[in-house]
Amino acid sequence: MFKIVKREEMAGGTVILNEIEAPLIAKKAKPGQFVILKAQESGERVPLTMADTDPEKGTITIIYMVVGKSTGIFRDLKVGEGYTDVIGPLGKATHLEKVGTVACVGGGTGVAVMHPITRALKEKGNHVIGIIGARNKDLLIMEDRMRSASTELHVCTDDGSYGHHGFVTEVLKEVLEAGQVKLVVAIGPVPMMKFVSKMTKEYGVKTIVSLNPIMVDGTGMCGGCRVSVGGETKFACVDGPEFDGHQVDYDELMLRLQAYCDEEKGCYEDYCRLTGE
Amino acid sequence: MATCHRKAASAAINRAGDRGDGPVITDAWWEERMSEQSNKKVKNPRQAMPEQAPEVRRRNFEEVPLGYTPQLAVAEAQRCLQCKNAGCVKGCPVGVDIPGFIKLLAQEKFTEAIRHIWKQNALPAVCGRVCPQEIQCEGECILSKKGDPVAIGNLERFVADWERKEGTGALPPIADRIGKKVAVVGSGPSGLTVAGDLIQKGYDVTIMEAFHKPGGVLVYGIPEFRLPKDIVGQEVHFLERLGVKVDCNVVVGRTVSLDELFEQGYEAIYVGVGAGLPRFMNLPGENLVGILSANEYLTRANLMKAYRFPEYDTPIPKGKDVVVLGAGNVAMDAARTAMRLGADRVRIVYRRSREEMPARAAEIHHAEEEGIEFCLLTNPLKYLGNDKGRLTGMECIQMELGEPDDSGRRRPVPKAGSEFQMDCDLVIVAVGSGANPLLTESTPDMGLNKWGYVITDPETGKTTKRGVWAGGDIVTGAATVILAMGAGRAAADSIHKYLTFGW
Fold first, then answer.
1. What is the model's pTM?
2. What is the pLDDT of residues B26-75, one digit of tens each?
3. What values do phi and psi take at B454, rounded to 5?
4. A39 in Cβ contact with A24 (< 8 Å)
5. By CA distance, what is A251's nearest residue in B?
6. A25 contact B CB<8A
7. Chain A residues with CB inside 8 Å of B250's CB?
8. Which of B228, B200, B220 is nearest to B60 (CA)?
9. Is B398 left (phi over 0), alpha (psi -120 to 50) or beta?
10. CB A211 within 8 A of CB A241
11. Sheet arrangement for strand B426-429
């Protein structure tokens, strides 16, 4: 068992942080890589990009939004309990180098994944402009951690309840106008990454996105996570999860993410009925 | 329009033999069979193994053949001529002493029989079910010259099943511990064989498996109705009882590298990670929802038990009109799984003709009995979808056979102007697999051929990296369970020599 040593609730309990004992993975993992978790014999294998690792303590941290039955089961795990299976580190690590000024754009739980990348880019000597957003103030996560990881931080909410009133793309546009940004890293909901990439393409700024398609094994064996990048089929689990944002076919990705929509909905409703929510 | 051949899923009793076409047990059949056996003048025929009726089994995941009774097994064992220079043993990639165990079986010494098999084969319940006996042991059986060979596979399965259900659980003797550690990467048939051999020779063996459950292709690939997963679990448990350590969730190449394993004190490493890279056809529309590799489809169904969704959380697309591309054993497994998941229609689409189909005859026969249709000499050109990105059909073209190609098989060539559309809501691509680079990429000093498979010495399984052996599909490309086991046997012998005398 992979024991949970720390658990936090964020965004009104809709987002959960788990710090998990996984010494082999903690030792190897680099920013941008993911793990696959499973919480019980009948459970699903769920891929999640790591939000942090502590090689000395031998732990990894994941942060996820509760969206269905599997994440519902994860949410109900307490400190001292754990996951039956944690596999990783999987995928390629983020390519980290000093390029000058970098904009790190995170939306929703993408902020959690963005955090270690932001920190690492700053440690490489980059001037890092963090831009994070959420639908409203209550759903915003990791503001403090992102503030210390970035050189400067901009916060947006869709409803204007906190920070800039509007989307991350609006702030990004201002930042790009200044003309210093050499690289954009965008991690968040697919539409956000799509529109960030569309904008940065106009400005001719290289953009990296991190994709989270449906997966089973995470080792290149099933091909369920195929994405079209520059007209070629790639496996997000081994060729990614990070890709050139200007080359990704986001529309196809969104359709593929809907593959099991009906099954997942029914499954979650049953689970909520059983757990009395 | 291409013709799709469909054979009615009838319950016709076929006495021709039990290679996939055994009878359904009825009282009349049983009595007739018993009276045949009591009549000494009637030459003892090959004992058919009872199996589930096609129209029943096509909708459930229970095992198809039901197994021999002790009476049937003994009657079958008595057919063996106990050849001195037995062809069957030469036909067995791991060299099981077949006449030896059959003799014990015929004497109703079932425990002794299983212990005798264990000397050469740690996975008899698996091999009895999935080996292609017709081209190995049974193909070499002297009785096959004039009639039906001894049902060696069925007998092997019987003693393994008997041990599991009725046996004492007593373990075979193993050598004293030598105090040397061996790592086995991958818990498929070749890795399990290496582990079984080396633990018995006295080594400390640890198997590392990337998935959360051991067994490799035996658990993710081969369906429950051909190889019940409880049986694989018990075969693995047998090795654990012998002292093998099984570490799941370890992706060698990612979680730990081969060199780090050496640093941890392992003195030899066996790499048996399987082929593990699905091949697609690179047709337009391939990323529509509703097109899965056979690897994904079968992994969802078998390893993740998606056929029991929503009791198990992993979903699987339940196509009503299913097409499987390819005609190997994996294609048959996928087609039969789709039928069991409630499809109205399942079609195998294959570009060559029936003669070239690579699947075992027994598998094709079972699939036909279950109502799988075969659209032969048909090749897909592109996938068709709707505005939701979901598959609605395929455009195909008819083929005809031309001159033989490099493989010696007649090359299929498209018939001009024969394009047609085929409706379908699920396509499973079962056109083979390639070498998964996950481990090999992280091990640059282990030599690979141009297709990415590991280069080994064919006799010993030694790779170009000192202290590392490899075998099974990561060396040969996709092949059979027993060939992988044969490679494991050779490597285990070579590892033993190395750890005794040096490289």
1. 0.91
2. 666 556 655 555 554 446 899 999 999 999 999 999 999 999 999 999 99
3. -75, 135
4. no
5. B389
6. yes
7. 24
8. B228
9. beta
10. yes
11. B4-5, B373-375, B345-349, B321-325, B426-429, B291-293
